[in-house]
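ERR on first pass: missing label on line 2. Operator R.T. fixed the label and resubmitted. Corrected input:
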Amino acid sequence: MNKVITLGQFIIEKQADFPYAKGELSRLLRDIGIAAKIVNREVNKAGLMDILGNAGSTNIQGESQQKLDVYADQQFISALKCGGECCIVASEENEDIIRLDTDVSKNAKYIVAIDPLDGSSNIDVNVPVGTIFSIYRRKTTAGQASLKDVMQKGTEQVAAGYIIYGSSTMLVYTTGKGVNGFTLDPSIGEFCLSHPDMQIPERGVIYSINEGNYVHFPQGVKDYIKYCQVEDPKTNRPYASRYIGSMVADIHRNLIKGGIFIYPVTSSAPNGKLRLVYECNPMAFLIEQAGGRATNGKDRILNLTVTELHQRSPIFIGSKEMVKKAESFNLLNEILQKS
Ligand code: AHG
Ligand code: MN
Ligand code: MN
Ligand code: MN
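pass 2 clean. output:
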């Protein structure tokens, strides 16, 4: 039996990578792990609890909040507040930033941006959902931390990752020194190292996009989809089309098997659908750390300027060679007027 390395042990062992850190980031990652276990417990018995269906409220995105969206949001915010290592939380489910102003938290040095429950449309049908998190160091040095501390470029992230509540529950994260995956062992309630040093294959044969929006895509995206579907044994085409509808699940599959995930601009979503701060940036940091690539069809996601908390961006992310090939198509061209 292999030696079991828990998330906590791993974080402490990796502490040596950060000689100047005094353990705050380690404790912050621990707090996220605790909230993940609590959310996992509810996701796993959702059908038995009054936690399915919608909460009867609408979030800033204009989406009707699912009960699990609200529950996960509350659990992560409270775990971060109790942990005391985070001074501000920016969440998909809250219009404004949330200041954690307990005596300890208000002087904390980290900011957390979070998508507490990703893939909400899949909650009631038992399809994998996730949580996405992104951690920044506070930049302001005096007074209260502010929105400026949140709206940093993706290159400034100190850590990022996701939890996938799937056939097993995994926590996958990076602190800028590679990507490691931990599987929750419910018998001991610990995330245990199961996927050390994860690397995304340079090439793959899976493309992941909601083809239901085909008529609304730019011509370049349509041309790339056709490229994926053409028979060419030399380049292992046609590729397989796989789309789960939870960004975390689609990207986790591609991280392991290789592939490209695309959420492009469409005529109804001129900036794309996925949010830069708590979906695109954390996933881009993680996939780059695993040897992959993430752009908006032209520019590196991590270099994009953040102008609004909930701003959206198109995203092409995954196996490096596949994203580069897709970029040779004009992916951001004007949406062709419907003929
Ligand atoms: P969220 O549930 O956090 O709002 O995110 C849903 C996102 C993402 O998980 C997924 O890739 C995408 O929405 C699916 O969008 P479509 O249903 O438009 O394909
Ligand atoms: Mn949502
Ligand atoms: Mn999401
Ligand atoms: Mn969400």
